[in-house]
Each structure stands twice: as structure tokens, then as C-alpha cells.
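Hey Z.,

So I finally got round to the iron/sulfur cluster thing we talked about over coffee. Here's the setup:
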Amino acid sequence: MTLDELQEIAESEREAQKKITHRINVSVAAGCLSLHSDVVFNILHEEVKKRGMEESCKVKAVGCMGLCAAGPLVRSEPQHTYYRGLPPDSPEVLSAIVDSINGRPVPEFALSPEIPFFAAQKRIVLENCGEIDPERIEDYIGVGGYQSLLTCIAKRSREDVVQEIIKSGLRGRGGGGYPTGLKWSMVAKAAGEQKYVICNADEGDPGAFMDRSVLESDPHRVLEGMAIAAYAVAATKGYIYCRAEYPLAVKRLKVAIRQAEKLGLLGKRIGESDFSFEVEVRIGAGAFVCGEETALIASVEGERGVPRPRPPFPAYSGLNHCPTLLNNVETFANIVPIVRNGAEWFASIGTDKSKGTKVFALVGDVVNTGLIEVPMGMKLRDLVYSLGGGIPDNKKFKAVQTGGPSGGCIPEQFLDMGVDYESLMSAGSIMGSGGMIVMDETACMVDVAKFFMDFTRDESCGKCIPCRVGTTQLHGMLERISEGKGRMEDLDTLERLGNMVKRTALCGLGQTAPNPVSSTVRYFRDEYVQHITNKTCAQGKCPCSKAPSTAAGK
Amino acid sequence: MPEISHYQVKTLTIDGKEVCASEHQTILEVARENNIDIPTLCYFNGLNGVGACRLCLVEVKGNNKLLPACVTQAQEGMEVTAHSPQLHEYRKLIIELLLTERSHVCAVCVSSGHCELQSLAQKLGVNHVTLPYLHEQCKADGSHRHFVADHNRCVLCTRCMRVCDEIEGAHTWDITGRGIRSRMITDMGEPWGDSETCTNCGKCVSVCPVGALVEKGKAVAEMTKPNFLPYLIQMRGKGQ
Amino acid sequence: MDKARIATLWLDGCSGCHMSLLDIDERLLDIASAIELVFSPLVDNKEFPENVDLTLVEGALANEEDIEKIKMVRARTKLLVALGDCAVTGNVPAMRNNFVLADVLHRGYVDNATANCGPPVHEVPQLEPKVIPLHELVAVDLFVPGCPPSADLIFFVLSEVLAGRIPDLSTRSHFGN
Ligand SMILES: Cc1cc2nc3c(=O)[nH]c(=O)nc-3n(C[C@H](O)[C@H](O)[C@H](O)COP(=O)(O)O)c2cc1C
Ligand code: SF4
Ligand code: SF4
Ligand code: SF4
Ligand code: FES
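And the result:
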């Protein structure tokens, strides 16, 4: 398929869609599906059919709309109304919604798109999520899909594409924030006949679902980004490493790959050029460490998924010792808009050193939990109180945990900080992949630290001593403190051992594992001291508060 | 074989001493050639490096990460610090962590006096541990005709696995589990004595740094390890 | 000059460290003139006195009596020395930590007993669930590992302390024999 042919398809798709005057989009991403949005979809579809309106009103299965706290979510256009929490077992309500498409929305379930949760977002990565049918490539082509890829291949040199990404200032969304363009140019320059592009869709942080939503809602976007990357670095083979816990994402990716190959947009001689790029999905067995790039590569090679020392970096010697470009799902999802709208446009969004937007999974003690995309630099306070709708039950804010098990807890004094890579780092946390857990006054920080330490201890691959034994020791110490058996010296040991593990562990897992402990010791030392001296947990979360007599018994 | 004319000599400093390295030499190899002692545990000359134990970490000027000397290639102009109070502290803590992990009871170990963990502890001045003992519980396997595997002594250096795979070609040893629950296993977890791949060559026993793999019938402190190095290196040479 | 008030204590150990102490042989005589042995299994005192300058402790903490004793000894001693691997690491006594205490007792007093089956309950201190080295419970000033520490090492420790120095043992001593 050539660029012209692609544009023809896009044109006819848009023509076809114009005939449809009304649209009822139903989210069939995993969150809403778990609340039976597929049933909602079927009923709405039947209701429309009953009324003989199929020609003008389309009930459409789409991806995630973000407000996961209120599923199943539906959006009715051109009314421009969201419906929340639709009961799959109540055909009356659903029928009323179909009846009202020309009039006033059904008030009990309606949600205005003007609320900050929707209005304050800036959707670049998620622009198609909740809009297009992820299982129809025509939908994606209709919104301009694959034009960027074919334009690059037909009209732009490889270096030119790399330069565009460098200029955009895009940084890796998988955790480290490494400049994406720089990585691309390293792989482009690396010597080697065979090069690979790998998409990291392992998303192992507990509570994170940014990548899953993108894959389930807009899989072609990621594939197109990978293909552009492959063109830019001269790779011919790609892998998407997706965790087995995401069966829907895997299915939609496979469907998308097949569709794209059929149209000549992936596979051999893309766009009738000399450039070929084949993509395969590889399924990970769910070890957190397999999200680490060298472990992921080992796993794709069929080896035990444990990290290898770097250098050599994958850019020079990765999969099968060949130069390998490895980026995160969200990173790849940013490529198409950058190529389409230009680096300047992208660089105008965000802060000085952190460009563009970031998708966050906002969870915990906030009213509106869900998936949001906001410009880099948005104030924490706005995230929590405006988009998030504040803390339920008028409780007080205590901290927000960012960066998952590698991150830290940020206390109230940082609420007016703009969120970007640097600011989070200076507050003792990290951006990570975008998990954001809000905690209210009832949270116990020792308990929180213990939770994350338990996770990393459990997920440590065991290859290196500092992480294997160090995380176990740190966790044991937290456990004793939470049982009221801690000593004041333990606080120093937590710090001393934590620093050692950070500095000496082999991979990022160990190097960041002590962060939740060090940040809570730093900002909430009082709470630790209280557990140690009073042998109680003021929040009633730790074992010591439940059985105060244990301390005496030894 | 590299031709002499291609032989690039690099100069660098380790602990302030100027040293020379040839192509592909690691920092550790250069240091040892120059009698600069860097402690190691997972490293074994002749086997592929894995950088796992982290004892050999060194500071390299301009790099804010510590690098494992055993797998990091020496480079022109590198300024390496192999000994500093900070590194010493880290190394001591690594040994401490190992001592707390399983049950290292030198008093009743056949390898006492010939054990690298024991001598590393002495060399680094670890005369007690500051962290609680974990006593991770492991099995001992006495099913093999000639050898015993007592996993309570194992430090998970994977030398056995590498020598068995890379040199003997049997790949009897592997790892199961992860993190603190990692265990060395023979074949798919069957008793060593039932292994269909083991050739009884004894290489794993020879390279084991501690008392985890030993010959049957040895009494306390009797288990010496034959010097395996020349043979290994010779075999490596042939393989390449 | 006042003689240094020295004590030795025997907890859960095999008495090998005390044997090694005696193995100092004739050099003991040099030391003897500079010290007063105020408490020890080797002398006949029943009460652990106050104001002890140095106590050498052999053995790990394994039962409730050990724990009471070490707390009292710590309170009455200026320089507390963990002597030998049992005191320093738990060593052989701590090998039972891999098992549940009840199982250990059953093994010893039921499975393998030929007479008087059943663990003793009267007039012996009850075992703690886990055996721990001294410093997990009380502050220890000096660690002298070894199973047992050699007579030379013990002599070195004593002569350094008598000379008013804290001996640096870091690379002189090692675990095991
Ligand atoms: C323990 C660990 C887990 C990781 N998990 C993920 C993951 O699930 N997804 C991801 O994209 N990156 C993950 N990373 C980061 C990757 O190693 C790598 O840096 C990233 O995928 C590179 O892509 P980027 O430059 O686009 O961010 C993980 C890193 C570590 C140390
Ligand atoms: S830091 Fe942890 S996860 Fe990473 S290699 Fe070491 S043991 Fe494995
Ligand atoms: S004896 Fe030889 S073949 Fe058998 S496990 Fe050891 S190294 Fe492998
Ligand atoms: S058995 Fe010995 S050689 Fe093998 S991993 Fe354990 S300590 Fe290392
Ligand atoms: S010897 Fe280098 S990491 Fe073990």
C-alpha cells in the first residue's frame, strides 16, 4: 500500500462515518469489561436495532475513557455526555439512554465532560482511547493512522526522523526518563547487520495500568511508533514483550498486527518500499524483574529472565548480541504525534527538561480514581484535588506515592510542586512509569514502606547479594518495627543498609528498592519513632497496635 | 588470534598506580597482574563473568555508578579506585549479608580453612554480623555416589552451574525460585544421584568456593579444592 | 596498682573456649599477677559481682536463664567480650534454629530416648524458640570469633586490654577453627 492508497482508505472511512449522526461509545477496556460493559454494549446495540436506527446511530466498542472509578463508562455524541456506572442488568436504564440521544441526558447517570477530571487533561498519548474501535484498523486509519509511518518511509531520511525525536525532548516513559532521541541515535549508529526494536509492555508496577490501557485501546498507535523507530534505526525485527496477565492487550495486539500486515503496513516491503519490519508478541510470565531491559532481553532469548551487567548497553549489544532499541509502550505511543505535528509542537508542552504529557494511574484515597494524561509540570495539588476530586470523606491529605516500588512518598509540603522528572527526584521519589497512589491521614507510613519492601523482596531475582539478602533484611527490620519490636538503632541500620543496597545492587530493582523506606524515614521519621518507643501504631494498621502485649513476651 | 600489530595497549590507573591493559582485559585482570587485590566471589578465572556478588565493585572517575571489576573492560585513561573506606564498608556488608542468609557454621564444615567466604570475612575484618540471622532453610542432598550438596552453605555464586555448562557441557546445575528463595538444583530438581546428565566429573565441587559442594567422606576441615585453574583455562582455549 | 577485675561466663557453648583459655599455659602466670578472677566456672564464686572490668562470655543465648544472666552481667561489666563463635554467631547451638523447638525436643527426648521419655520440664531453664548471639540482645564491646579462638588470640586480647588498649582483631581472627 502506498501513501496515496492509505489516504483513500482514510477518506472513505471518514465518508462512511459522516453518515452516522449519533454515536454511543462503550468502553470495553479491562476495567469496564470487568463490570460487564460487554453486556451494556450488547443491550444498547439491541435497543438501537429495535428502533431501526442502525444507519444513523452507532454503538461502538472503544477503549479506556479513564474514569475507572465509575465504570462501565459510556459516552453519547453529539450530546457530549458521559454516563457512569451503567447497570448491565437494567435494560430500562439503557433503553432510556438510547431514547434520550436527541434530548436531555438521563440525569442519574450523566456526567458532564466539563468536570476537571476530563477538562484539565491533555490527551496526546490517549487521544484515540475511547474514540476508536481498537479492533478495526479502518478506524485507526480514519483518524490519520499509519500516515506518519508511510510519510517517513517515503519522504524522510532515517537521520531526519532521529533528529526530530531528539529535538522533541521526549524522554523514556518506562521509568528512567532517558532521552529517547539519544537512545535512537545510539542504536542507529551502532554497528551491526541485524538490529531489533523491542516494546516493553511488561508493566509490572503494582497498581499501574497506563500501558495496558494504551495497548487495549489503541494498539495500532504503538505498532506505528515501533515501525517508525525501526525505520529510523534500520531494524527489521520487532518484539512486544507483554505480560501474560494482559490477555486482552495480547489479543488486540495480535489482531492489529495481522490487520496491518494484510494492508502492507507492517511486514515485508512496507508502503511498497525496501523497508521491512516484522513484529511478534512475546508473553512474559509475570516476574517484575523481566521489565528490566536486560532481563527482558534474556527472557526473549529464552533464558532465565535475570538482569545482566551493563555495559554493554542493549543499544550496542542487546538481543542476540545485536544492537537493540528498547522503549516503553507510552514512549512509542508518543512517536506518531511528534512525527505528525513536529518536534517544536511537542517541545512546547511540559516543562524545561520534561516535555510533553504523562499518563498517570491515579489511585488510592481520591474521589476520581482512574487514568489521566496531563502536561508535565502540573501541580500535585491540581492532580489530587482538581482532577482527582479531592480526598473522600473530607479526610486530610497525607502523602502521595509515585514511581511504584522504586519510588517514594511525597508529603504535603510538596503539594505545590510541579510534577516532572527532576522535581520528583529532588523530593526523593521518581516518576517511574506513572503510578500515583494518594494516601489520606489514616495511612501508616511504616505499613506503606513495609508493603513495598515486601513486594521488592518477593520480586528480587536473587542474582546479586545486596538485593537478594538486603531487601529481605530491610523487610525484616520493618516487620519488627511494625510489631513493636524495633529499636532506635534500626533507623540507622535502615539507612545504612538501604544506601548500600542502592549503590551496589546489579539492576534497577535493587538500586531503587530502598526508596520507599528512605523517603518515609526522611519525611515521617516521627511515625517510625512512635512505633519503636510507644510500641503502637497510631493509625491502627500495624500488628503492634492489635496485640500490645506481644512486646513484653519477646 | 589477534596479530601483534593490532594489539592495543591501554594505560589507566588503579588506586593511583599506572598500569597497562591489553585489548579486552577486565579491570580485575589488570589489577591482579599488578598485585592489586580486589576481593571476588562469583568470579572464577576461565568461566564467563556474571557480576553477581558485587564484591569487586570499584569506583571509576566520571561514572557515578560503581562497576564490577570482573566484567568491566579496562579502558584508556580510566581512573579506577579499587579501595576506599566506602568500598570497604560495602564489601563488609556484602559478606555480612551472606553470613546471615543461610547457615554458615564453620565449626562443623568440611571446608573450614579452605573456604573463600571464611577467608574473605577475615580479610575484610568481618568478625561478627550486625544484622539478624535469617537461617534460610535449605536441603542437603547426599544422593550422589561421590559428592554431597549442602545448600545451607551455598552462596549462589553459580560457579557450579557455569563450569558444568560451559566446560563440562553437561548443564546439570541450574537455579530454581527467585530472590531469597533461590536454590541451586540438579537437572529439573531431581536428587543429584538420579541425575541423567551428571558425568561425575567433579568440576563443580572443585570450583565451589564454600562448603556447599564437597566430596563424600571428608571430615571437618579436610576438604581441599584442587587447583583447577590451568585445566579450565586450557579447556576454554580449546573451545574458542 | 589495682588489679583488673576479670570474669568469665559459660552460657550455651561446649566449654571449648574456656579450655582454649587454659591453653594459654605458662603465660597465664604472667596474667594472673595482674588480674583478679572475680567470677568464673573455674573458681568458686556463686554471685556475679559488681564493677567487673572485663567479662569473657562463652556461648550463645539459648534459654531463659542465659538471657537473665547476660543482662545482669552486661549491667555489671565495663568491657563485655563475646568469646568464640557461639557467643559471636550462635554457631552450633543455633543450628537448631532451622527447626521448630518442639520438634527438636521431641527428637532428642522422645525419638532418640531409651529411658525417661519426654523433655525435661522441672529444674532446668526452658529453651527459647531461637538461639541468638550475645549482641542481638545486649551491647558487646569486643568480638573474638573462632571455634575455639586460639590460646594465642585470647592471650593477645587479655594482654592488650591489660595494657589499656582495645585490641584490633579485625583481621587476626576468623570464624571456625
Ligand atoms: C525492576 C525493573 C522493572 C522495570 N519494569 C518496566 C516495565 O514494566 N515497563 C517498562 O517500560 N520499563 C520498565 N523498566 C525500565 C526498563 O528497564 C527500561 O528502562 C525501559 O523500558 C526503557 O524504555 P524507555 O526509555 O522508553 O523508558 C523496569 C526497570 C526495572 C529496573
Ligand atoms: S538488583 Fe535484585 S533484581 Fe536486580 S539483579 Fe540484583 S537480585 Fe536481581
Ligand atoms: S560433577 Fe561434573 S557433570 Fe556432575 S554436576 Fe558437577 S560439574 Fe556437572
Ligand atoms: S553450590 Fe557452591 S558453586 Fe554452586 S552456587 Fe552454591 S556456593 Fe556457588
Ligand atoms: S566477582 Fe565481580 S561481581 Fe562477583
